[in-house]
UniProtKB/TrEMBL annotation, chain A:
Lineage: Bacteria, Bacillati, Bacillota, Bacilli, Bacillales
Pfam families: ABC-3
Protein name as annotated: Metal ABC transporter permease
Transmembrane segments: 12-34, 46-75, 87-113, 133-151, 220-241, 247-263
Family (UniProt): Belongs to the ABC-3 integral membrane protein family.
Keywords from the UniProt entry: Membrane, Transmembrane, Transmembrane helix, Transport
Bilayer topology: Multi-pass membrane protein
GO biological process: response to zinc ion; transmembrane transport
Subcellular location: Cell membrane; Membrane
UniProtKB/TrEMBL annotation, chain B:
Family of this protein: Belongs to the ABC transporter superfamily.
Keyword Plastid in record: no
The keyword ATP-binding is annotated on this UniProt entry: yes
UniProt feature coiled coil, ranges: none
Top-level taxon in the UniProt lineage: Bacteria
SMART domains for the chain: AAA
Name of protein: ABC transporter
GO molecular function, a single term: ATP binding
InterPro entries for this protein: AAA+_ATPase, ABC_transporter-like_ATP-bd, ABC_transporter-like_CS, Metal_Ion_Import_ABC, P-loop_NTPase
Alphabetical UniProt keywords: ATP-binding, Nucleotide-binding, Transport
Residues of the ABC transporter domain: 16-251
Amino acid sequence: MVLELLASGFFLKALIGGVLIAVVAPLMGTFLVLRRLSMIGDTLAHVTIAGVALGFLIQVYPLLVGLIFALLASFAIEKLRKAYKTYAELSIAIMMSGGVALASLFFTLGMSFNLNVSSYLFGSIYTLTNADIYVVAGVAVIILIAVAVFWKELFLLTFDEDAAEVTGLPVKMLNAMVTVLTALIISVSIKIVGALLISALLTIPVACSMLIARGFKQSIIFSVIIAEIAAIAGLLIAGVWSLAPGAMIVLMLIAMLIVTMIVKRGLKV
Amino acid sequence: MAIESSMNALCHQHVIQLDHVSFDYQDQSVIRDLNFAVKQRDFVGLIGSNGAGKTTLMRMIVGLLKPKTGSIELFGEPISQFKDWQRIGYVPQKNSFNPLFPATVREVVQSGVFGKRNIARKIPKADVQKCTDAMEVMRISDLATKRIGQLSGGQQQRVFLARALINNPDLLILDEPTVGIDIETQHDFFQLVQHMHQHHRMTFLMVSHDMEMIEAYLGKEPVQQSGKLKFYVKHSHEIENCVDTNLAHSLSTREAELH
């Protein structure tokens, strides 16, 4: 059954796409979660669908328009955060509802184009094209290189932003880089897990690894392993029993979080 | 010869110079026309009630905030042009990080050299050694692979001190280093800092609200008062002249004497 699945081109592509996203999403997620920016992923995803919808309307590569929207949104969030300072989460709430409003507007305008809304909300991993895979792979390589080159700076920024600034790191530049890379991941994974579920791949693996890892490096490695297990197992289960693949990946992640918590508690008592 | 003259130049130079510095926060004046100079090997204690502007002043000195008016110089250089941040060790408040953060003691100490721009992305061997030395000095080597959040408050503070010392700084800035630590550990920590002041070439700036400790070491009378901020100073000429350049050696001798 599994072999049959693997032999089919569309499933293999789905698996490759899933594996690639599961490497880089938790990688960036680590830097977001540990800086208490878990909700950024969700917000950018909602804005990205608005961009994707507009892309279909104006007949421009939808993921590209989605990416542009995500980038604009991330800078708008920064501006709003400064305006409200101590109520920074307001900026996330505003952008999220703004994104949903735009998305629903564009989707209704595009009714006549026969837009398939649910494939962007929940992903449509089986329809990945070769071009999609190349785009995902390209983004994965960019993120891997960026993290490999800047991990020391990113660690200091994440652990202690003041110290990072005192030691003379270009904090603003690094913050912008994290945001841009997050926007990149989200826009390319919309087709794979869907806008409503991408946040799970950014945050849940990190939530698991935070519980068990001793150090930062270990935490990153664990979160990638956890995401990979969930992605591969989730896709296989979904393939064999014809279930929704994006949903299965997320449910696998939550199952792993529960198991991690139980095991950790068991070891402690 | 050349080394000696540059040492001399260093001694006469002001480590921190505040010139008519003012700062206001939302129309409220926090710091008004402050003039103050910290000389080489001074120990400056900064005391003030909440809202007196202690943190504001510290953040201005390390370049995180810009003064509204006036100028700040570090090691004789205007702060906007100052690039040599490795000369400054910074120990933050204890609760400046999340206790759930997954980072080992070694990772935290090592991050003291992460500000350095180097093209090689691997941590150079020399820096790894510096990290090992700094942990040795602060007696936290056996905790190297422990998660920072699992340590006691006193141990965590030693970790941050080790991180600040890793670059062998000329100026050590401590921002309320003992908040949330039990009295006995606080006492130990102050003793350690005092020892470093008396035996090494470092200059100290410490914000604290522990009157008792400040008065015990720096005297009962502030040398200067500006608004609600009080400055207590022990000048370099009030302490022994001989300096031990080897921090590790001097601290282990001290440790041996204590036991």
